[in-house]
Amino acid sequence: MPRDPRKPRRLTAGGRTYLWTLRHSHSVVDGGRTCRETLTLHPQPAGERGPLRIVFTEGPARYVPGGAPLGSGDVGYVRGASLNLHEPGAVRALLDTALARGWQPEEPGAREIDGWSLLEAAAAVRAAAAGPAGPKE
User: What is the total count of domains within the chain?
Assistant: First the structure.
């Protein structure tokens, strides 16, 4: 039985547990449809801590899934770094990059970060973890 994509997944990093979800949405910009992927991480226990939303909006030389030929969860630069946001290792690399750049899970209220500002660093972390044998989940 396939996993329900709306059900939050669990990720443990640095002694803290997070629940994460991935959502695809559309908006109309300048008369055209624009795709957007939003990765949301909820530090646990939830309490007063706010979630982190990492947002990837398609644009020039950037892609997010909007149907064939792209796979669900794929984001990246047309000629460069990419990640699959369904992979826990990719989510962990984005989380680690956000933490290294100052996001604190204890912050109250939601915080939104442009995913493109994290992508290249997170993809480099992911590639280093992969080594010659491929990704380590």
Answer: 1
Q: What would the pLDDT profile of 13-30 be if each residue is shown by its tens digit?
A: 989 999 999 999 988 777
Q: Closest Cα partner for 126 from 92, 76, 98? A: 92
- What is residue 46's DSSP assignment? -
Tell me if 53 is assigned to some domain: yes
Which DSSP string corresponds to 82-137?
Answer: EEETTSHHHHHHHHHHHHHTT--TT-BS-EEEETHHHHHHHHHHHHHHHGGG----
Phi, psi for 123 (deg, rounded to 5): -65, -35
Look up the domain containing 110 and give its range: 9-130
Q: What tens digit of pLDDT does each residue of 27-76 get?
A: 877 777 788 999 999 999 877 688 999 999 999 999 998 766 667 889 99
Q: Which residues pair with 36 in a beta bridge?
A: 25, 57
In a domain, 95, yes or no: yes
135, part of any domain: no
Q: Is residue 50 part of a domain?
A: yes
